[in-house]
Amino acid sequence: MKLYNSLTHTKDEFVTHEPGKVTMYTCGPTVYHFAHIGNLRSYIMEDILEKYLVYSGYDVKRAMNITDVGHLTSDADSGEDKMLKGAKREHKTVMEIAQFYTDAFFADCEKLNIKKPEIVVPATSYIDHFIEMVVTLLEKGYAYEAGGNIYFDTSKLDEYYVFNKHNEEDLVVGVREGVEEDNNKRNKADFVLWFTKSKFDDQELKWDSPWGVGYPGWHIECSAISTHALGEYLDIHCGGIDNAFPHHTNEIAQSEAYLGHPWCSQWFHVLHLNTNDGKMSKSKGEFLTVSLLESKGYDPLVYRFFCLQSHYRKALVFSYEGLDNAKVAYDKLVARIAELIPNGGHDEEAVRPFLEAFANAMDNDLNTAMGITVIYDLLKSKISDADKLWLIEKFDSVLSVGLLAAAAKKRAEKDAQKAAAPEIPAEIAQLVEKRAAAKKVKDFATADAIRAQIAEMGYLLKETRQGLVIEKL
Ligand code: AMP
Ligand code: ZN
To answer: Which of 72, 218, 287, 306 has a CA-to-CA distance to 341 between 20 and 30 Å?
Structure first.
């Protein structure tokens, strides 16, 4: 399997630290508000990655944090804690906000068929581990105390900007537009590991530490949670592309300084979902959530299908027109699957080329759009219905767009329609046929006479857009 690796900027052959086993870490949501469908694009694609690894035979162990403290409104150590902002907005406590939006996040995930990772860790439950990591970084000389806060010293690293050879002046924290310079920092790229002196004295959650009462920086959360939950060597780290810098860059700095060896070999970044007028936002314009889509009549799985039609490494523009197109394609696909009749087992020889085609698509940097094309191809092919259904079930264990369930629902609806239709006696059916034949040759007089005869026998003929309907009078 080849996966694009943000560290090497190439599609690399996927290798794991231990054969057959994958450790996978995902940056979880900051639970100060609902997730928008952009956030969920990242989680959908990460879910596909996990499921495809399992499909390919790997034993996957995956962990995710829940950011319920320390993520400031600017990713660069300034601004207010997002959690506090959420609590003030809703006149609730930070922990109430965290619980509510954590539940909301997993409810959205369930609607989108996103599997909950095996290990989920709220940052506030791991404070001791964060402190232990900061203590070690201080002992090893990678961190320093200044103005009451503990900072990571980026000048101690051979290479800090691991993902891109940034123009360092553009990205350093102190000179970014709208970011206040922090005079405690020895180097502009240094970042906070532990806050005690915050501009915001009303920070609600604080803990005792060797440096005074305070709270952790956002980046240390992921370094500590992933090493404790998944071990010293991580196979894949995931997140949206905005997290590559500074969040993931800082995670790498901390983890490798702490561990004393390379940490994670494969970095999987999902590009953003944007709107026509730019960045997706939780505060400006329409706040695009799963519930909003549902209120407009869209099945959340249609949104998942919409995402899978594009490659995760391309920015995707969301529009209702695009979603409508995905809905039409999805409904057509489901209708075709609903026509298939389950009849016996599958034939290994017949299904093999399609298994290979699906694996080729997904092994090529998770090409989900090509994976879906394989489903169209197999539907068009001459293999049996049983083979088709077997393959679709298998592929949908990865794609998770609910194809078989939706097809079963469609079939049940059709059966119910049939059952609701009255039983038509044979003589009426014969008359209906005769009338159709008369109409065909434009003998409308006969057609009308037959209609009257049918009415006398107690049945009404109705021409509808769906065709002729026969009702009992
Ligand atoms: P947050 O809740 O802000 O910590 O973000 C949760 C996840 O969503 C992270 O992996 C982000 O990188 C990702 N993300 C944020 N905005 C977008 C977007 N517009 N499209 C895709 N992923 C995003
Ligand atoms: Zn993270």
So the answer is: 306
**Distance from the alpha carbon of residue 226 to the mean position of ligand 1, in angstroms:** 19
User: Which residues does residue 168 pair with via DSSP β-bridges, in sequence order?
Assistant: none
240 lines ligand 1 (CB under 6 A): yes
Most distant CA pair in the chain: distance in Å? Answer: 101
Ligand nearest to the CA of 217: 2
Tens digit of each residue's pLDDT (9 = 90 or more) over 347-385: 999 999 999 999 999 999 999 999 999 999 999 999 999
What predicted TM-score, i.e. pTM, was given to this entire model? 0.88
CA–CA gap between residue 275 and residue 285 (Å, rounded): 10
Q: Any idea what DSSP says for residue 18?
A: B
Q: Is 134 helix (H, G, I), strand (E, B) or coil?
A: helix
Distances 358 to 55, 346, 363, 432 between C-alpha atoms, Å: 11, 17, 8, 48
CA distances from 207 to 29, 83, 96, 191 (A): 22, 16, 18, 20
Rounded to whole angstroms, the Cα distance separating 112 from 221 reads 27
363: left (phi over 0), alpha (psi -120 to 50) or beta: alpha
Residue 461 Cα to ligand 1 middle (Å): 57
Q: What's the DSSP call for residue 250? A: H
The per-residue pLDDT for 9 is 95
Calpha distance 86→96 (Å, rounded): 10
pLDDT, residue 181, reads 72
| Residue 246, preceding peptide bond in cis (omega within 30° of 0) | yes
Those residues whose C-beta lies under 8 Å from the C-beta of residue 60, and which sit 6 or more positions away, are 21, 22, 24, 50, 53, 54
Contact 114, 44 (CB under 8 A): yes
From the CB of 26, is ligand 1 less than 6 Å away? no
> Do residues 249 and 160 touch, judged by C-beta distance below 8 A?
yes
Tokens of 412: 């049940």
Q: Is the CB of 39 under 6 A from ligand 1?
A: yes
Q: Which residue has the tokens 């920015």?
A: 315
Q: Whose CA is nearest to atom 6 of ligand 1?
A: 29
Which segments in the chain show pLDDT lower than 70?
A: 75-76, 165-180, 198-201, 422, 465-466
- Residue 435 Cβ inside 6 Å of ligand 1? The answer reads no
